[in-house]
Amino acid sequence: MDNKKTISGFSKLSKRGKIKWIVKTFFKDPENVMKELQSYWHSNDEQQKILDNFSENTISNFPMPFGVAPNFIINDKAYCIPMVIEESSVVAAASAAAKFWMTRGGFKTQIISTKKLGQVHFLWHGDKFKLYYHFNEIKKRLIEECFSFTKSMVKRGGGILDIELIDLSDKEDGLFQLMASFETCDSMGANFINTCLEQFAVSLKQFFKESKAFDAKDGEVEIVMSILSNYTPECIVKASVECPLEELGKFPGGMTAEQFANRFAMAVRIAEIDPYRATTHNKGIYNGIDAVVIASGNDFRAIEACGHTYAARNGHTAA
User: Fold this and answer.
1) I want to staple 294 with a disulfide (CB 3.0 to 4.6 A). Which of 84, 155, 185, 257 is the partner?
2) What is the DSSP letter of 4?
3) Where are the domains of the chain?
4) Is 105 in contact with 242 (CB distance < 8 Å)?
5) CA distance 178 to 172
6) How many helices (H) and strands (E) are present in the chain, helices listed first?
């Protein structure tokens, strides 16, 4: 370890102080490096403070080009889609596709389900059959003692949908899981879900302490973690485009529209059986998805994690 390049209390330094330490410690031309970093600061001090508060140990900004893809017709309504990405061809391709499908009915979307999931993992080494026998009673208590957190969501048409008990003790001794499903309406509901899960954990431990059905021989419940899952396989939106084959247009080398459609379908099929191809196909899909998610200030990492897990849910790399 190079002790000359380590520091204690870095987060307590001012932004300028952080930069000074970095440039003097790691660069041979500290003045120019410091000027370069400061050149990306926002010209408005108040706006810069907002940006600094987004993260930790901020020293500068990382600009990304903010583009748009016009001519999207989605459910018969026109949109101009914001896209933040460093790869210009992605925006160009999205714009070209939008223009192509604009005169062919556009994109059709349908919300299939908005169910979200969360889990409470716990260790317990008692009689699992007794646990299953009393689980309906446990579930009722969990839901009732969470009502103070769920009542406003229930008024909007959401709330707790169900709680399942999942036995994982065949994979890890004594490990069980509460798998809870939620309806959070138009919101992601992360804070709502995590608050409910934390209350589930408290109520579960209290139930085992108070219930006459369980005694000292059954042992205590040890909560491992209570947190939402970013894998939400039943939170699905369907998007599609369609047109007669003859409207696909002309293709190079004398290829017919039917041949092109068959070739396209074969490319999809190859991705279903070849993980190397599927990975690149999915990367191409996320070129567009990530660009829109970043432009709207959302968590593209959560969406990618869910999408890739969903694509591999059946042991393959593509859906």
Assistant:
1) 84
2) G
3) 10-54, 64-110, 114-229, 250-319
4) yes
5) 15
6) 11, 7
> What does the alpha-carbon distance between residue 264 and residue 110 come to, in Å, rounded to a whole number?
24
CA distance 124 to 109: 45
* pLDDT at residue 186, as a whole number: 85
DSSP secondary structure code for residue 107 in this structure: B
- Pair of tokens at residue 40: 């990306």
- Cβ atoms of residues 52 and 33 within 8 Å: no
The CATH classification of domain 114-229, taken from the options 3.10.20.440, 3.30.70.420, 3.20.20.140, 1.10.230.10:
3.30.70.420
Alpha carbon distance 12, 57 (integer Å): 9
Angstrom distance (rounded) from CA 30 to CA 179:
53
Pick from 40, 87, 81: which is nearest to 59 by CA?
A: 40
Q: What is the chain's length? A: 319
Residue 87, both tokens:
């790869």
Question: What is the value of pTM for the model shown?
Answer: 0.86
Distance CA(258)–CA(1), nearest Å, equals: 63
Beta bridge pairs of residue 66 = 84
Q: What share of the chain is helix, strand, coil (3-state, %, to 5)?
A: 50, 20, 30
Return d(Cα 300, Cα 283) in angstroms, integer: 13
Which helix (H) or strand (E) is 84 found in, with range? strand 77-84
Weakly modelled stretches of the chain, pLDDT under 50: none
